[in-house]
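Retry 2 of 3 after timeout on previous attempt. Resubmitting structure tokens to design endpoint.
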């Protein structure tokens, strides 16, 4: 756990030092759980969003995108269930006066059990060497099997209690597991209570005529209320999807873990409308497709896993998370949900308008079922960033900090470095910048020794460095350095663009999905 904490501190520190993420309003001591993206962070975030959008919208001829407003008619949130049911179960520790999400306390306890399993696996792998069969060990080792059974039983009971809104049993489970307050170490807990997460505000010129509205807690409802607008104007035939990215807002009382859980965040969601009865097939298909998208970035298959929900939302008949191994353990990165016809049916009821699809083949109208994929852009940023940040030991006792971002996502694809600030080298270097910047994000750096500049670009995650030297003036060649291998080779000026595009082009990465 200590190593995980240290690694996470390095992630947060590196994010600030290299212009990726800053505390919001830092000069005024900041605002809790709200962050600003710096110059490098903005580029990385944009590239992640673009990678998702191209895979979801551009490569699927039956998925289109929209951009719905943040403010919506307040009845929207009554129909969606958010006014009555969008709650977190909270519990206070009487000694520390700190408030926690009860379900997160229990999940953290389960994470410790999973940590024990990982320790047993590592010890066994060391003991048996190449003969070690991990799957067999997980299925047959008595201690590990017991840990797994305990973890599953805890999550199942919590899910059932939350589904039945049996908050007394949630507290009883916390007491039975002897979960202590992380601050005070005591087990002096209050009862568990529900807390609504929506931010409310007013629209209108005066207090008398103003209307109570909400900052949207999710982007999905903007898709549902526009279902018919998109279907008719786009002449869409079922099955089809509507995607969008955008800001959402939740009044998280226990916001923590850097950008993992914020009050203002960005979602990338797609709602896929299908014929009733076919939702389970599409649910399984989208689970597979979304995992392939994640794996296409090459961040390690072992860092992902599916987690089926024990507690289903009021609208779902199936739900699973794609969890990622963050520095603080496996946590939800993306959700795939079979939402049935709850959303469109509910908006039909509250609006009095028909939200149905006329099937030209069967000559029947019906309310479509929905399969949703929903990923937090900020969480995806944290997954990519934390997984990429590495300390690497080099020869002769040296080391380097390198941000091994997938090249397709890196803020800058190439840094152009003149060896010296004279003799015409900066001029040639800037000519290269002017040529490349039409096709990729390029940065120019002439300060400090070349070795130090290489280290700076490693820490920024830049996949390539081009060094312009005196030989470049003579034979039109440059040195290209690869971030990951640190390999250097001499290439012609005319070949630079093709070499780099081969490694960073979105199309080449997304072809891995086929």
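Retry 2 succeeded. Sequence:
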């Amino acid at each position: 756990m200590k190593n995980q904490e240290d690694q996470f501190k390095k992630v947060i520190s590196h994010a600030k030092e290299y212009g990726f993420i800053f505390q919001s309003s830092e000069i005024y001591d900041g605002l809790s759980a709200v962050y600003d993206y710096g110059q490098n962070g903005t580029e990385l975030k944009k590239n992640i969003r673009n990678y998702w959008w191209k895979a979801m919208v551009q490569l699927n001829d039956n998925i289109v995108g929209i951009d719905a407003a943040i403010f919506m008619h307040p009845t929207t949130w009554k129909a969606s269930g958010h006014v009555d049911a969008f709650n977190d179960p909270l519990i206070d520790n009487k000694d520390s006066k700190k408030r926690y999400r009860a379900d997160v306390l229990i999940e953290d306890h389960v994470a410790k059990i999973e940590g024990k399993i990982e320790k047993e696996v590592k010890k066994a792998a060391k003991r048996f060497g190449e003969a070690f069969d991990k799957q067999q060990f997980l299925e047959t080792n008595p201690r590990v099997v017991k840990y797994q059974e305990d973890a599953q039983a805890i999550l199942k009971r919590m899910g059932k209690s939350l589904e039945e809104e049996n908050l007394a049993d949630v507290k009883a489970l916390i007491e039975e597991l002897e979960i202590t307050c992380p601050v005070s170490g005591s087990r002096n807990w209050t009862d568990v209570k529900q807390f609504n997460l929506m931010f409310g505000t007013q629209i209108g010129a005066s207090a008398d005529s103003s209307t109570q509205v909400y900052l949207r807690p999710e982007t999905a409802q903007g898709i549902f209320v526009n279902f018919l607008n998109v279907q008719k104007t786009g002449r869409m035939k079922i099955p089809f999807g509507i995607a969008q990215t955008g800001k959402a807002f939740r009044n998280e009382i226990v916001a923590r873990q850097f950008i993992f859980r914020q009050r203002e965040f960005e979602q990338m969601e797609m709602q896929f409308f299908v014929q009733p009865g076919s939702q389970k097939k599409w649910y399984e298909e989208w689970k597979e497709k979304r995992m392939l998208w994640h794996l296409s970035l090459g961040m390690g298959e072992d860092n992902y896993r599916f987690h089926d929900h024990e507690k289903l939302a009021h609208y779902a008949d199936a739900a699973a998370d794609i969890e990622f191994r963050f520095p603080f353990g496996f946590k939800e990165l993306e959700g795939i949900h079979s939402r049935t016809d709850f959303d469109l049916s509910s908006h039909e009821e509250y609006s009095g308008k028909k939200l149905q699809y006329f099937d030209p083949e069967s000559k029947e109208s019906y309310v479509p079922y929905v399969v949703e994929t929903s990923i937090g852009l900020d969480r995806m940023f944290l997954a990519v960033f934390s997984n990429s940040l590495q300390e690497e030991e080099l020869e002769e006792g040296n080391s380097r900090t390198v941000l091994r971002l997938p090249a397709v996502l890196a803020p800058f694809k190439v840094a152009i470095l003149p060896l010296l600030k004279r003799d015409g080298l900066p001029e040639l270097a800037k000519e290269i910048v002017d040529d490349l910047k039409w096709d990729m994000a390029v940065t120019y750096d002439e300060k400090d020794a070349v070795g130090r500049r290489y280290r700076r670009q490693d820490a920024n995650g830049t996949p390539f460095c081009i060094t312009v030297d005196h030989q470049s003036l003579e034979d039109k060649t440059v040195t290209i350095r690869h971030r990951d291998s640190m390999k250097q080779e001499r290439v012609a000026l005319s070949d630079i663009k093709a070499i780099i595009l081969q490694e960073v082009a979105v199309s080449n990465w997304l072809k891995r999905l086929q």
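Attempt log closed. The domain at 87-196 is CATH 3.30.40.230 (Herpes Virus-1).
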